[in-house]
Amino acid sequence: MNLALRDIRHRAGRFVLTAVGLSLLLGVVMSMIGIYRGLVDDALALARAPAAELWVVEGGTRGPFAEASRIPRDTRAAIARLDGVAAAGAVTYQSLQVSVDGRPLRLFVVGHELDRPGGPTAIADGRAIERSHFELVVDRRTGLKLGERLRLGTDTFTVVGRTKGQVDSAGNAVAYMTLSDAQKLQFTLEGAAARNQAARGESPNRQQVNAVVARVKPGHDPDELAQSVRRWKHLAALSQDQQESLLLTSVVEKARRQIGLFTAVLLAVSTVIIALIIYTMTMDKMREIATLKLIGAPDRTIAGLILQQSLALGGLAFVTGTTLVTLAAGVFPRRVLILPADVAALSLVVLTICVVASLFGVRYALRVDPARALGG
Amino acid sequence: MTHPLIRLRGMAKHYGEGATRVDALRAVDMDIHAGSVVGLLGPSGSGKSTLLNLIGAITDPSGGHMILDGETVYDGRWLRRDLRRLRLEKIGFIFQFHNLMPFLSARENVEVVLDLAGWPAAKRRERAQSLLDYLQVGDKAQAKPAQLSGGQAQRIAIARALANNPRIILADEPTAALDSERAAIVMDLLRKVAADQGAAVVVVTHDDKIMNRLDVIHRLREGVLQSPEERT
Ligand SMILES: Nc1ncnc2c1ncn2[C@@H]1O[C@H](COP(=O)(O)OP(=O)(O)OP(=O)(O)O)[C@@H](O)[C@H]1O
Ligand SMILES: [Mg+2]
């Protein structure tokens, strides 16, 4: 006969209400983890979009995402000539803010060369850029529709295609355009000071790009190619793997620690709350526990009663919380990625928390004197 | 004469030491036989509850010798390590307030004891129901304690005390919370149990209304047992 379950059923309303409250807390924990996973995924999506195997950036930097990088545009031709390189393309990256129907929209603009690596490899709807001017492929996250027109700088662009889930590490949606459009846009937006400088020939911005991405011929090792690129002093090179782990350590690391810390605090709070609830539930049953002991119930029956209630509370709250977050994932401004492995891991953590939290109640219950069942 | 179900020799209990020492019981000798309903009477603080709790293995004695149902359980120390098991096997408790589990139905409250004793579910249910029928509250099997009257709840509590067939039934002021009519019904039930099951029923009471339903009356005064009065 399960006493824990019957006691819960007896005060189902109170129990469910408590579990729902707790589920919101655990839901926040789950969404923190989901936000972190989303962050990692978003950061990698941008680096993975060109399907490159080699990144060539400015010497002494770890660009183009972790650090600023500028290299001459003609680097691309030099890289393309290397033995083992199948194709290479120059890319630029810039953030800009535009206004769409009066509301601000921040874009992360990727300029790339047509028919060379650097553009989006997966278009969700519409088509890739085909004309060399004034076409845009944007991420769905912008809310822009196919065929929609957008004024950027001095030109009007048309949305011809859309990607799915491509944002920069700050969560801004990505927009692709041709390299020459991107460079003109940059030049326009950098303002008079830069233009004057350029006119004096000091910083020929329009001849610079942020990186060159390359694909490698079969049978060639990207790491070896990176080695040989590094012999040019003004260049640095990273394989795709290096680029990804760099992104994770530099761009995402702080967020990871931040979110990790926050998650730990929330889990600690959850533990305290569960412990308090279970402790109170146990105190409320003091007389029943004393009676049970008096009529001969062993400690394991008493401890089991409390532990089971703690697990039931945590379990119900966890399932509710995870369901809520999964349903609400689309509402978050940044991507919330709920991975089954994380759900499984968190369920183990919640299990542990419930056991730990029940210990206070169990300790109290085991100390209850059976004589307390007697008298008034 | 048969062996007594409860035999106490020199049972003593004191609380505290030195200046604060209270001798709640001093060298109590007592024999209680099967089939009898025994009353423990005395002024407040005279040691009635203490004595009942010693017999019930709830309180540790300070000294003495105690035989319950043929087994020497205390001889200067407990001879059983697991006193809860001892209580489960040998003793049924009835409290002043029924102490039923509010989250269990009347029948489940009786089943708890059988569950602890390891009875399988079906037999448990059958036994609990027949006990409720015996105590004339069979129709209340599904009711929660909050839905029962005081007298009904006390009868369920008696059913629980009887569930595991204990030969010793201890009741501390079982009728204090009941009116005289219901108190009489409860006492008659306890007499019936003692007679039917060959049990010894020990009742602590202040209640004059139930005196005529006791077979033997033991009076306590400042922890000392007076000679018993047999009733007819
Ligand atoms: N846990 C305890 N600690 C200290 N002294 C106690 C304790 N329990 C009982 N006593 C003392 O032992 C004596 C006997 O108490 P007991 O409860 O047995 O009396 P009683 O006859 O049941 O009284 P009442 O009719 O009021 O219930 C009293 O003086 C009481 O103060
Ligand atoms: Mg008393």
From TrEMBL, chain A:
Keyword Transferase: no
Entry keyword set: Cell membrane, Membrane, Transmembrane, Transmembrane helix, Transport
UniProt membrane topology term: Multi-pass membrane protein
Alphabetized InterPro entries for the sequence: ABC-4/HrtB_transporter, ABC3_permease_C, MacB_PCD
Residues covered by the ABC3 transporter permease C-terminal domain: 261-370
Cell location: Cell membrane
Cellular component GO terms, alphabetical: plasma membrane
Top-level taxon of origin: Bacteria
Disulfide bond found in the keyword field: no
Parts of the chain that traverse the membrane: 12-36, 259-279, 310-332, 344-366
Ranges of residues in domain MacB-like periplasmic core: 16-231
Descriptive protein name: FtsX-like permease family protein
Species name: Magnetospirillum aberrantis SpK
High-level lineage: Bacteria, Pseudomonadati, Pseudomonadota, Alphaproteobacteria, Rhodospirillales
UniProtKB/TrEMBL annotation, chain B:
Family named by the database record: Belongs to the ABC transporter superfamily. Macrolide exporter (TC 3.A.1.122) family.
The name this protein goes by in its record: ABC transporter ATP-binding protein
InterPro entries, alphabetized: AAA+_ATPase, ABC_transporter-like_ATP-bd, ABC_transporter-like_CS, ABC_transpr_LolD-like, MacB-like_ATP-bd, P-loop_NTPase
CC per GO annotation: membrane protein complex; plasma membrane
Molecular function GO labels: ATP binding; ATP hydrolysis activity; transmembrane transporter activity
Record Gene3D superfamilies: P-loop containing nucleotide triphosphate hydrolases
Xref: CDD domains: ABC_MJ0796_LolCDE_FtsE
Coiled-coil residue windows: none
ABC transporter domain ranges (all copies): 6-232
Gene source species: Magnetospirillum aberrantis SpK
Pfam family of the protein (one): ABC_tran
Keyword presence, Membrane: yes
